[in-house]
Amino acid sequence: QLQTSHPQAVAQVKAVGLSGQMHGAVLLDAAGAVLRPAMLWNDGRSFAQCEQLSHAVPKLAQITGNLAMPGFTAPKLLWVAQHEPDLFARCATVLLPKDWLRYKLSGALVSDMSDAAGTLWLDVGQRDWSDTVLQACQLTRAHMPLLVEGSAPSGRVWPELAERWGMTEPPVIAGGAGDNAASAVGMGLVRPGEGFVSLGTSGVVFVSGATFAPNPAQALHAFCHAIPERWHQMSVMLSAASALTWAKDTLGLPNEGELLTLAATLSAQERAAAPVFLPYLNGERSPHNNAHACGVWFGLGRAHTAAHLAYSVAEGVGFGLRDGLHTLQQPLPATLSVVGGGTRSPWWLQLLADVLDVALTLHSGAQTGAALGAARLAWLAHVGDTPEHIHNVCTTPPVTQTFSPNAQAQVTLLARYVQFQALYTTLKPHMQG
After folding, report:
1. How far apart are CA 30 and CA 35, in angstroms?
2. Residue 82: helix, strand or coil by DSSP?
3. Strand pairing category for 110-112 and 146-148
4. Could you tell me if 197 and 83 are in contact, meaning their C-beta atoms sit under 8 angstroms apart?
């Protein structure tokens, strides 16, 4: 389509960037053929294998910076080894989803540091595969792709593909990044202490750092950033904008925007009387690491309307993000950028600023930050990822709006947040698979 609509621009393409959803497992045989459907980031079947891996590698969290969680790639491979042993025996290479795309584009078996950090096979501090963890999964380095920085070249598009698409020469392919690291590059958040809140299917609080700083006790992720000599901390909740999607379907509304518009009709007094919502529709990661956590509407009464329910879901996602925010290394940032599809609602962004007690800045292009980040990594792979080039390429897009916390609204929100936390603690023993 691009070749048809923009032939001159496509002809001049010098580099391609990739961003990926992280944690998935694409299994290839010795001939490079896919062995089974990919197991994606939200696949929770490997809960038992997480316990096995943690027992087999007592220093797992120190090596990888993360607890073993079903979403990660390593326990998925243990699951395959135990439940599909014949298929596992034929597995020659394990790729992340975006790296399979790279393989089809170029023939190169390569991953980048940020995406590889989400496999649970990477020694994140050393930015290298961990032989210890690989061995515990019955794998070796031979099963793994080569590693490059996200801003470094990883190969070139096949000449026949470049010719088919009308490109003057085969473009270089950047290492690329996991989606959140790519979003940070797109928003220019590569310096220590800079970060963002992502309102996508999942919800993320991301802060860049100059050192490897894990906090596995609270299910915080410590990953490599997409540029050299940078790491980041990341708290992840599994249902953010997807909770809004579930709620609009459940309430029979046409789209998420209508849900938030309905929620915004409540007065402050009506908000204070709304049910409390636990947003754990797909289990939860930070800070609970509980695959059995489930969603709850608590305090329902006959006086409650669809607007009350809509509001409680929007608020509950905010409370989940606040839980994650407070797992990050102190001091917390005073300002965070905001990215993702959820940024379309100014009303929700103000509510989240109030809940998080952090100023949120919306930038132009925030809805497509990961794609812009992938393009910037491609640019760096073409010109060289020197500190000067990184500084010049990874600029922050203009701020279009700022949402500052409202102290008056926070009084009610804090009381409801305390109830939110107590509700999970009370119900946790009853949340079982």
Report:
1. 10
2. helix
3. parallel
4. no
How far apart (Å, rounded) are the C-alpha atoms in residues 239 and 200?
A: 9
Distance CA 323, CA 286 (A): 8
Q: Which tokens is 309 given?
A: 């329910």
First to last CA, the chain: 46
Can you tell me which residue has the tokens 């590693």?
147
Residue 385 is among the residues annotated as catalytic for this protein: no
Helices (H), 92-158: 97-106, 113-116, 131-136
Q: State yes or no: pLDDT of 85 exceeds 80.
A: yes
What one-letter code names the amino acid at 294?
A: C
Tokens of 410: 């926070």
Rounded to whole angstroms, what are the CA distances from 267 to 257, 260, 263, 311, 321?
18, 14, 10, 11, 23
- 287 prior amide bond cis, ω within 30: yes
Neighbours of 25 (CB within 10 A): 26
Q: Residue 175: which of 383, 19, 28 has the closest Cα?
A: 19
Task: Yes or no: say if 382 and 391 are a contact pair by the CB < 8 Å rule.
Answer: no
Cis ω before 405 (30° cut-off from 0): no
Tokens 């379309």 -> residue = 344
pLDDT tier at 342, thresholds 50, 70, 90? confident
Q: Is 25 helix (H, G, I), strand (E, B) or coil?
A: strand
CA–CA gap between residue 351 and residue 368 (Å, rounded): 22
State the maximum Cα–Cα separation within the chain, in Å, rounded to a whole number. 67
Are the CB atoms for 377 and 182 separated by under 8 Å? Answer: yes
Q: What is the spatial distance between Cα 348 and Cα 340, in angstroms, rounded to a whole number?
A: 13
The pLDDT of 397-407, averaged and rounded, is: 95
Strands 359-363 and 335-339: parallel
Catalytic residue chosen out of the listed positions 115, 123, 179, 323? 179
- The predicted model scores a pTM of 0.86
Q: How far is CA 19 from CA 368, 391, 400, in A?
A: 11, 20, 25
The amino acid at 356: L
219 has a pLDDT exceeding 90: no
Fill in the DSSP letter of residue 188.
T
What is the C-alpha to C-alpha distance for residues 378 and 395, in angstroms, rounded to an integer?
Answer: 15
